[in-house]
């Protein structure tokens, strides 16, 4: 894919150019300045997280609960939560991504959910639990799923068509190149000679090539281990489900790696959803189809995403003259470390945050609820949906595909094409709310103003500032978790009340005294 097909792998190529630029006199000087800026904003973000912790002694306390746009807007998740991570993410993400998230939040929490809530007692029972999938929560989750599936399937077929087309053209040109005598109605293929740099890269890249027998033997060994061990972890996931996944996964992994090289778009989540529906329906509700589907999704996504991720990394290695064998060993070491670190971090979060994964909590884990709902849908069918939910899901499924089609027809680089929102980004706030979209749009606004004042500095130091904000806020989570596990609680609860509620609280406190 890298040498024969010469696929671009845009992210891998961009990373390689960044690394190469550091190894020039000017690049090294700029890198030192960027590290200083990153360290500065890392410290600010970390200390800001530490400062906020003092005011979070109870539920709904702290700066993150500040009703900056009013209490009514706060009830519908429209507020600025002072998150340095989201501001940094907004500075990194393209403008259209942040605007798409905000549009999705306004459409769902600003218009649709209040209107559907008014139909309580008509479209769904009024006495349902707020988190019941048969009530308003069902509309939030399944309409978001419909948009994600519409966007994912559209891009899936688009990438597959482009992949097959590119492979056909490649083999056609290869056959033309091997033709010795001129043939009627065929043009002689142009002779392409590799530059000295490309010849050198290819020579070094192939010198440390990983043997095919090692790759095949490694895959078979891992498949055998998975078939033997996973059913003991998830009894609902039978050994023959895993075997079927490992048989079909290489084909899907190849398609994903090839498509990622063309478009920079990994469809691992789409293949994971395919595993949810197929394995979940195969197992059935009476044999734990929900757990089987979700576990199968984890297996499929790990295989397919690794194919595209490694290909991106090998492209970076090819362009930076790194040894593919050394890169592979590094990946193995990193994966082995992850096997210990990831469960430890999850355990720490589980112990520190009792509401982990709950809607409205500090860490709502939105995709957990979405994927679980997909598994339930795959096992139980559409009968589990509330009234009119399937109609709305179909509308938003088609709308996601149509929006993508319009965007592709106009062209992403065209004037009007730049203003077409991204359905996948629009779907995210449907479930968790638009509060983080406001933070991200503020990050975009900061970068936009900075670019207008000094574009060269914004381009050079914008990513460093954003990375510092994200890393500092993220790292503070570790000591906060340790403090929570140790039983150390913040001393102050800062809570915001309406005037009438505050008067009642004052009256109650006065009566006690």
Distance between the termini: 77 Å
Per DSSP, what share of the residues sits in E-state strands of 2 or more residues? under 5%
Query: What series of H and E elements makes up the topology?
Result: HHHHHHHHHHHHHHHHHH
Total DSSP E strands: 0
Overall pLDDT metric: 85
Number of helices: 18
Rg on CA atoms, Å: 26 Å
Percent helix range? over 70%
Largest sheet: none
* Poorly predicted sequence stretches spanning 5 or more consecutive residues: none
Main location: membrane
Subcellular location: Membrane
Membrane topology: Multi-pass membrane protein
Protein name: Oligopeptide transporter
Please provide a written account of the structure.
Its main location: membrane. It is found in: Membrane. Belongs to the YSL (TC 2.A.67.2) family. The chain has 513 residues and is an all-alpha fold. The protein is built from 18 helices and no strands. Helix 6 (136-177) runs parallel beside helix 14, helix 6 (136-177) packs antiparallel against helix 15 and helix 9 (239-263) packs antiparallel against helix 10. It is globular, with a radius of gyration of 26 Å. The model has no long low-confidence stretch (mean pLDDT 85).
Fold blueprint:
Layout: H1 10-22, H2 25-53, H3 71-75, H4 84-92, H5 95-117, H6 136-177, H7 196-207, H8 212-233, H9 239-263, H10 268-283, H11 289-319, H12 324-352, H13 366-380, H14 389-410, H15 423-432, H16 435-453, H17 455-485, H18 499-512
